[in-house]
Amino acid sequence: MRVDVETDNIATGRTDMESPQVEIAGDTCEAVDAGINGIIKESIEKHKRRTAFWDRAATIAIWSLAFIGMGILFFIIGTILWRGLAMAIQPGFIFGKPEAIKEGGGIGPMVVSSFYLAFLTVIIVLPIGVGAAIYMSEFAKEGWATRAARFGADSLATVPSVIFGIFGMVLFVIYFGLGWCLLAGALTLALLNLPTVMRTTEEALKAVPSSYREASMGLGATRWETVKRVVLPSAMPGITTGAVLTIGRAIGESAVVIFTVGIFIGWIPRTPLSPAAPMAANIWHWYTEGALKADAMAIANGEAALLLLVVLLLNVAARVLARFYQKRLGTVR
Amino acid sequence: MTAIDREWIVKKTLFVLAMITVLGVLLIVFFVARESIQAFTEAGPANLFGAEWKPKDGQYGMLVFIVGTLTTTAGGLLLGTPLAIGSAIFLTQMAPRRTRSIVTRGVELLAGIPSIVLGWLGLTVLVPWIRNFSNSAGTGILAASIILAIMVIPTITTISIDALEAVPRSHKEASLAMGATRWQTIRRVLIPAAKPGLIVAVILGMGRAIGETMAVALVIGPASTFATSLTSPTHTMTTKILIEMGESTGVQRSALFAMGVVLLLISMALILAVRMVTRERKTA
């Protein structure tokens, strides 16, 4: 493509020369040639300078775009932690009893609710998601079933979370009569996280070399024995990553929770059928009902910082776990 | 029980688990659509897609919120796409290895920040800034667009990276060997070759922006009228559903579900768009 541009330049150089050349009829051919050569050289130089300039400009621009992105990230994390961390790491705040109207109080029930909900979500979604992924990559032939399941997963992944929320409210809270409770929220969140778990598991299963399966089946193992004893253990790092991602999303999710679990309670939820108030949804509560409580904003800042801290730790945990499994199994992902 | 019986049972069980994805989608569509029937029969489509949302006067027009969703999404993509694709180019073409791993981790982290936390930050930092600059309430399309831009960056960046990395190395090498500069190679070879993937990235970013609820809800409202400027409050479909569902009954509640149906239709359209783009790439 560069060649094209240069021929263009040479061509324009010539046309520029032609008209004066006719007027100065007395000049020798050599002088004209030298002139043309000079112009060609000059235009090549000019072109080189221009492309070099644009190359440098683009490099600077793209570096700065990446830096702006990182700057935004650090600003977000920095601000949230700076404003809320002092509060978020106080045991009295993390484990304390909340106050609806009086100043002060902790978020004990909210912390418990968040982890309880995430735990329930994971134990519901993991068997379904991993099972579905095993079916897709180990058992099924490419056909209507895999196409349907893949379309289902894609659709679930694009449905807005608030739609999951109102759906969970209609089906689990009202139709099944569960009422606002952890189980209703966990079932809805399980559906929301199903595509992620399926995708990470499927990727992990695909990364297991087919020679493992061949070796196992060559020894007379059935397909299921092969999956259970050979493929699944090798895919553990990927499955773990999916599970940790799910925990993070379940703890951070609020639109679903508001419609299915609840936004404020003063006590710790006991069973999966108790209403609860996870941290993320509780921040929304302080936004809508903040006028009731003088220090609602400080509480919400603390909750935001704690949420972010949990997400950061889960991120690190996913990495460490994956590395641990890799070492133990000696497999390369 | 013989091993063959067990194999058969296991296979059927796993098949049922895989079909839960389909069942889930069907249930969502069924229940959301069923709840919206009342709005369609009692208020009628003309009323539902009108411009006035005044439930007390029996007007349930969702046009304001459709416009809110479209404008904030467009704003978010306009601000976020250059940053995201720029970052993807940076990560795949320019960054030294250590910088690359740090920035990649940063992008993953950004994806993990709960939307309510981002919204809370928007409400307490971004909105006051805009209020000072523009002498207005501070909430509105501008604030929502900025927050959405931040939220679509991880989605678009990650998928763009995959698209750029899928371009065969030989294409790039051929271009460089011909004497093209790095920028010429990126602009004339890499970006055209990765274009379908980049389009998919933007479409999925769009899906994320249209569906985002909490972060937008904290920085956009509250008003059920068209925005008169970038800094005047309005609502999107998702935020309207979030805010009014709890305290509404009858036709008003059903009209909110009708907005849900519209959102579901948009999601489906986006999936189909992605499939069309990827199919084009396969045949090309």
Verbal overview:
The complex is a heterodimer of chains A (333) and B (284). Chain A is mostly helical and 333 residues long. Chain A has two domains: 2-83; 100-329, MetI-like fold. Chain A is built from twelve helices and no strands. Chain A has helices spanning 2-23, 29-88, 91-95, 108-139, 144-158, 161-175, 182-206, 210-218, 223-252, 255-260, 279-289, 296-329. In chain A, helix 7 crosses helix 9, helix 9 packs antiparallel against helix 12 (296-329) and helix 11 runs antiparallel to helix 12 (296-329). The longest helix of chain A has 60 residues, at 29-88. The radius of gyration of chain A is 31 Å and the shape is extended. In chain A, 43% of the residues are buried. Residues 1-23 of chain A have low confidence and may be disordered. Chain B is mainly alpha-helical. Chain B has a single domain (47-283), classed as MetI-like (MetI-like fold), CATH 1.10.3720.10. Chain B has helices spanning 3-43, 45-48, 63-94, 97-112, 115-134, 141-165, 169-177, 182-211, 214-220, 237-244, 250-283; strands spanning 53-54, 59-60. In chain B, strands 1-2 form a two-stranded antiparallel ribbon. In chain B, helix 1 (3-43) packs across helix 11. The model of chain B has no long low-confidence stretch (mean pLDDT 90). The interface between A and B is large, with 88 and 87 residues.
List the helices and strands and how they pair.
The complex is a heterodimer of chains A (333) and B (284).
Chain A: H1 2-23, H2 29-88, H3 91-95, H4 108-139, H5 144-158, H6 161-175, H7 182-206, H8 210-218, H9 223-252, H10 255-260, H11 279-289, H12 296-329
Helix pairs in contact in A: 1-2, 2-12, 4-7, 4-9, 5-7, 6-7, 7-9, 8-9, 9-12, 11-12
Chain B: H1 3-43, H2 45-48, E1 53-54, E2 59-60, H3 63-94, H4 97-112, H5 115-134, H6 141-165, H7 169-177, H8 182-211, H9 214-220, H10 237-244, H11 250-283
Antiparallel strand pairs in B: 1-2
Helix pairs in contact in B: 1-11, 3-6, 3-8, 4-6, 5-6, 5-9, 6-8, 6-9, 7-8, 8-11, 10-11
